[in-house]
Amino acid sequence: MPHRSATEAASPVPDAVEHVDVLIVGAGLSGIGVGASLTRTLPHKSFVILEGRGSSGGTWDLFRYPGIRSDSDLTTFGYDFKPWRQREAIADGAQILEYLRETVQENDLEGRIRYHHRVVGAAWSSETARWTVTVERTDTGEELLFSAGWLFSAGGYYNYAHGHTPHFEGRDRFQGRIVHPQHWPEDLDWTGKRVVVIGSGATAVTLVPSMADEAAHVTMLQRTPTYVMPIPREDRLALRLRRRFGDERGHALARRKNILKQRAIWGFCQRFPGAARRTIRRFNEERLPAGFPVDEHFNPPYDPWDQRLCAVPDGDLFRAIRTGDASVVTDRIVTFTETGILLESGRELEADVIVTATGLTIQLLGGLDLTVDGRPVDVTDSVAYRGMMLSGVPNFAMAIGYTNSSWTLKIGLVCEYFCRLLTHMDEHGQDAVRAVADPGMETRPLLDFGAGYVQRALESMPRQGTAAPWLMSMDYFQDVRTLRRGPVVDEHLEFAVAGSGARA
């Protein structure tokens, strides 16, 4: 079947097209949350979830590296409507995946998910007030079309196909195995082998203690240190609250407690960075061997929470260092060699396995092409409205969670506002809405976050403003006031009915 662009397929809409009120892209944490919110709040709305892979769960199904876990507590990383019932607050990937698939079953979403459906492009028609979405079946190569009143991009913000791996001189010379955590091979055996993990982020600090028990030795090789905080794997107060008040009420109370705790820690780090740095250093020093060079390996050049803090449950990374099963080297790579890695200091790290835990590649909106009335959309010309819509793009929503707290807290509030907006439009007979930004409005990068994977992609992302509703808020309590309790409509939204081309 010859390929048709989304623009060519936009109008008229063929009879064979499946029509839905909302088309959700992605069956991971965010997409499942959107689907459950529609089912629970607007059961009369029709929707489907398109998933390019063959299974649900998103990140938690894709990533299979040893020790994969959340670095946020599941009381807040989970959904507000579904209590987390496991003992562990910091859960591993298998537990999170089970939780997500339970949510799918409990909200009758399985029949709404279309697997192996990769969205290629989407074209908006103001005449029909609908999106026509071109989809490729990744298992058969067949091309399909969907028609939707709303398009909701819930696929996160990174490329599922490719992780970030910088150029390493001499890589082809290395005679051992090189792997990236995003594509962990099932046949990799590191038992009794020397492992070097390149990186210092959440993935690296997870991999090192998880591999240390079976490997001969694991070295975490970092160019720049990261703040690493030991946290309890179990939340004892949350467990007591659930025993005392039951799962539903206990979950709500524990969630509120943890939201306040997260915000307090972040606020303390922002207001008193020097004191925060000293506090984190003290926690590290207490758990590391006597005489360990803490300032060399765990004292970053930036302030706490300029990048995300790495959490290590029950201090497992520090325990692996204390036992001698793991070590940390802070240096720069000159070249890979046949047997390891040569560093600028002149030291050579011998390795049988090298893991490039070097980060993600951001790909906003899953890489899909958008057109509005035949004109291609350049997202870099758009400004984010309430952190979930793009200026000038009608009936389009996206899911981007918090960078300074649990991702899902923001997604839950976005879903609430989305359902409120749909209800408002139904009550007023409106078919389309777009956010309109002042052309002269001051803007800045979409995310105020120093992580390398974010900085590498900012030029390809939309912008944000300097004040609400154009500000990409990372404040949960502010978002509760605006997204949950505030007015649905403001002067920045322009409504229309199908075919009128006029404001409603």
TrEMBL record:
Keywords: FAD, Flavoprotein, Monooxygenase, NADP, Oxidoreductase. InterPro entries: FAD-binding_MO, FAD/NAD-bd_sf, Flavin_mOase-like. Pfam families: FMO-like (PF00743), NAD_binding_8 (PF13450). Its cofactor is FAD. One of its GO terms (molecular function) is flavin adenine dinucleotide binding. The keyword NADP applies. This is Cation diffusion facilitator CzcD-associated flavoprotein CzcO. Belongs to the FAD-binding monooxygenase family. SUPFAM superfamilies: FAD/NAD(P)-binding domain. It comes from Micrococcus flavus. The keyword Oxidoreductase applies.
